[in-house]
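Regression report. Comparing outputs from two consecutive submissions.

Submission 1:
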Amino acid sequence: MTDSVKTSPIDTYWNLKLEAVKENLENNKFEVFIAQTAQAAKDIALDQIIPKLDIKSVSWGGSMSFISTGLFHALNSNKDLEVINTFDKSLSMEEMLERRRKSLMVDLFVTGTNAITEAGHLVNLDMIGNRVAAITWGPKNVLLIVGRNKLCCDLEDAMFRIKNYAAPVNAINLNKKTPCAKTGVCQDCASPDRICNYWSITEKCFLKGRIKIILVNEELGF
C-alpha cells in the first residue's frame, strides 16, 4: 500500500524503484508497504500493521531508521505492551545481554536492515548478532523500516555498501575504538570494538508475511 505520491522527478524515480523491489519482496513472501515519509511509515505501522497483530510484547534492534520515524517513542511509552528496551544506557553489559536474549521471544521485533537488493533479499551485518537472529527466527513478527538509500543492485553491491559505508559510519556514531572510526575505511580489524561479526542474507520469508517491511521514499539511517 502506498500513501500519497510525491511529484518531484527524484521522488518519482524512487517510487518506481521501490515499487519494483516491493514486488520482488512480495514474491519472496515478505509483506511490504511503501511510505513517502518517515511520519507516514510510523502511521502505517500504528494504523495498518500493528492493529492486525495480537501483540502483547515488543522489542527492537539498533536502527536509526526506526528511531527517526518516532515509532520507537510511541512503542516505548505504550503502557499496554510489555516493552523490552535493550538500549537502556543504565544497564550493565550482563543485563543488556539478558534483555537481548529475552527480546528474541517477543510478539513484535522492530528494526532496520543494512541493505535490500533489487531482487528482494535482505543483507545485514551485526556486532552481537541479536538483530540478525531476531530477523531470522524467534519473534512472532518482525517489522523493518527501510529508507530508499538502503537499496542496492545486487548482493555484491549490498555487502560493499555495508562494509565501506554503513559500518564505518555506525562505528563513528557509536564512538567505537576501531580503525574505520578514525579513517572511514574498513581494515577488517581485530579490535575488541569491532561491529562487523555476523553476516545474514535473507532470501525469502518463512512463514509467509512474518517479516513486514515498510519501504520509505526518504533517506533514513546509515
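Submission 2:
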Amino acid sequence: MIYDFPGRILDYGQKGYLAPLNDMIDDDFKKDVSDSIWNQTKVNDDIVMYPINTTPFMMAVNKTLFEKIGALDLLPLDRPERTWTVAEYQKALEAVKEKAPDVFPSGFFAKNTGGDQGTRAYLANLAGTSFMDPDMKKISINSEDGVKALQWVVDGVKNKLVAPGTESLTSNDNLDLFMQGKLATTIIYSSVLKKIYSTKKVADFEEAFVAFPTPDGKNPAFEPFIGGMAVFNNGDKAKVEAAKKLVDFIANDPDWTKKNLKATGGFSVRSSVTGLYDDPEMKYVESMRKYMIDAPTRAKNFIELRTVWFPELQKALMGQATAKEALDSFAKKGDEIVNKN
C-alpha cells in the first residue's frame, strides 16, 4: 500500500503496478466527489487511487507585515473570495519594497521539481490561461499571455519585487523564508502545508490565505492537493483484498475518518463532509475548493513532464532564453512526452 498524490500514483498505475479499486467505489461515493478529483484517480477506466483528503494550493500573505507598513488595504481580505487583479497584487508588492526593504515582496523558485504545482498555477493565473489543454495532450502555457506572465516574473526579479536567485531556490526555500518573516507573500501554500510547516514558523506573524491574482481579478484556478491510497498488485489476491479493507478503514471508519482528515490539515474529498474546522481561515479555504481544476498531474507521463519544466524556467530567469523561447521549448518537449507511448 501507499499513501501519496496523483502524480506518482498514476505513474505507478500507468506502468501496471497497481490493483484496480473500482469495486470499492459505489454510486453514492462517485456522486459525492467532484469530477476534477475523480479524473486524478484513474488510469483509463480503472480507479487506482482511493481519494481521501484534498485542499487547494493557494497563495498566502504575511498579514501582520502589511498591517505594520500600513498597507493592509492593498490586500483583498475584505472581499468574500479574496480575489484580486495582477495590477492590485503588484501595487501591494511595491508597498512592501518601499516600506519594508528588509523583506522580499514575493518569491519564485525553479531549482527542481518540488512544488512545481505552485509555479504552474501562479503563471497560469497571472496569464488568465491554462497550463495544458483540457485533454491533457497539449501544453498551452506558451500562449502570448503565458509568455507575458513569465516575463512579469523575470522583470520582477530585476525590479526587486521578486526575491533574487529564483533559479537556484526551491519551494522549501520559499516556504522557509515565509515562515521566517522574510517573504511577504508565498506562491505555494495550502492548509496541509500550513500544518506541516507550523513547527518551522520562527517569526511571530499572522498569515492569511488569498487567491492567485488574475488579469481581471476573477475566477482563480487552483491545482488541488489530493491525498489517496493505492494498493500494489503483487499477485496475491488475499493480500490485495486485505489491503483494500485497510484502505476502507482509514478512509471511512466512523470514529477515525475525521480524526485522520484533521491530522493532515486537509478536507474530505466528499462534498457532503464539511465543517471539520472552526477556524475562519480554514472555512475560507474550504469555500474556495470550488475553484479547484483538473490538474496536469493526470497527464500521461507526468513524472517525466515535470522534469523538463524547471530547466526552461531557469533559462528564462538567468537570461539564457527569452520567456517565449523558454515556454516554446517546454511546450515542444512537453507535447512529445505526454503523447508518446
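Expected: both submissions complete independently.
Actual: both completed, but the second showed a warning that disappeared on reload.
Relevant detail on submission 2: The longest helix spans residues 323-339.
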